[in-house]
């Protein structure tokens, strides 16, 4: 795969400033400002970081308490603007629901209608196109309840892609997929990112490393990092080392397949430094903010 | 949203033009197809069509009265309506049950427009019912024996009921998030209809239900029905519109236009409800009084052969059928009866409302025979019994009081000319039996038939008609005399006289 960090980001197609949203006393989003351009932008963060909330705000599912954003030049703060944003939006929610008695074709067709694709012939052509794009042409007449989990996820992606949206919001699309399915999905998302803006929320740093030209890391409702995957990786330069025992001074450390320990943090003198990965940079960016990132 | 933002560019986007209402119609078509393909709807639709065919091809339906046929189209669509209601309700709740709301709520077609689509999805079902109702009515109207006039308002009730149930399904789906809510409400509604206020037609509450079918023993001339059918249609249209708009309101469509239309539809519903609040008159009205007490002022009389037939204006086309029965009976009679001039008078008692089962008093005037408004099926042999009674006893009153051996002659005259006399015998007797004692029905009062009389009549009906007819004509005077015993009648007609000595109905 090519170095995605070198892909230039065009002028932003999605621009948000000062987005704040509180649920009770908790700030799900706290003064979030982001700019998204063409291509795939990864959104990383531990559970509860506000990733899904940010996606839901940008997808116009919930309005922010404060702040503003535009999508493809449209302001969702107005009713007309919100409709325009929705016309340009493809959304794959986390753990998407399906109508199990619908066939794959019917479900995507239904979504296409809700996206105002009203000409029946053109709509059906478009539904066939997106089902073909996600390699579901052969099973398009099968009821969704008879499809595998991976196939269902592809149906959801097809539903997000139908109508050729300019802004694609994908909330953890690869969760629950086996490695082969995940690889297939990455190909689809990479293709979807050609010529449109894709915001991909994920727990998988591999997804980001392989797909994204930019990455945003959120922690506790705030943006802690925004840059290229290479820049995120570079944050770990000189802060990852190998040792025979877990280094007690390391912020995180775990035994690797070779039997040695990989440590992340502030290395001791003379440490055996190793090449950092995007995950190392991500872990260091979290800086102990998530219980999930402190392996025993 | 006042924060300054960078000027964004458009990377890509949908190429189609926004057409929100076209999307609503496309969604309505999609949902209508889902409804159409639903097994419960399909099964009921097929059953409904089978019922129409069965009902219209019944022997009784060879002589339809169109002002009854139109009302008869109303009840069965309720079943379809229930299926439509439950399916529309399920469709409205589908995205919530299947957790697709999170996705669909950020799509262009807003929930309130989706509600409109769900409401519209019931329209094809209503149109299907409209087509079926039209076919059912037209089929009946094209029958040679059809009389009367149908009402477009009565015919509209079935389709409107289906539409109303459909929009109720949409409203319930928007008000109650459980899929059980609609069936529970349905059961409550049916309970209320059955026990709390059965739709009897003459109280205003019953007219709040979609279907108010009123049937009694007699069909009324159309101008005596006095049902507020047009007001009821206005009420149903207003109510369907009101319920649909409330569903739209409940799903977030709160524009001024929607609110104004809610007010307008509420007004329409109220106007309809007030207009129909008088209901169907339960008792006498001037028109009903006149038709019941002085029908001769309304009826038109026509001559067929030697007899006269007086019918209410809508029934004049049926007098030939009555004349055919009179001729058939008279051909079997002997003496002067075979050539007697009869006056067949159509009568009804409309003074007790549409649902009354009034027994008409038999006429005391010689040679007058009553025929009611219903015809076909069992009504034909019943009329034949009345004709035979008058020929044998002189007048209807005397005929209904006959209990002696003349019953045998009356019954054979009435039924001997039938194509299937044994079936006819069973049809005119209460209990549908061809043995033992029973009451015999006629257009006025019934009369009794003893077990022995029944046995002799049954035996006679099994014999060749010409054989018995000859004996009847030859021994007419004796057979029609109240003095003649059962044993003698049996002997005259060459039938075994097992218990004939003690077997007339006067003893029972």
Automatic annotation (TrEMBL), chain A:
- Write out the entry's keywords from A to Z: ATP-binding, Nucleotide-binding, Transport
Q: Which Gene Ontology terms cover its molecular function?
A: ATP binding; ATP hydrolysis activity
Transmembrane ranges, per UniProt, are: none
Q: List, alphabetically, the Gene3D superfamilies matched.
A: P-loop containing nucleotide triphosphate hydrolases (3.40.50.300)
The record, for SMART domains, names:
AAA
The signal peptide here is none
Indicate the segments forming the ABC transporter domain, all copies.
Answer: 14-245
InterPro entries hit by this protein: AAA+_ATPase, ABC_transporter-like_ATP-bd, ABC_transporter-like_CS, P-loop_NTPase
What's the superkingdom here? Bacteria
Family from the record: Belongs to the ABC transporter superfamily.
Q: Which PANTHER family match?
A: ABC TRANSPORTER, ATP-BINDING PROTEIN
Write the protein's name: ABC transporter ATP-binding protein
UniProtKB/TrEMBL annotation, chain B:
The protein's UniProt keywords, in alphabetical order, are: Membrane, Transmembrane, Transmembrane helix
Q: Superkingdom of the source? A: Bacteria
The membrane spanning regions, by residue number, are 35-54, 74-93, 119-141, 153-172, 179-197, 229-250, 257-275
What is the protein name stated in its UniProt record? ABC transporter permease
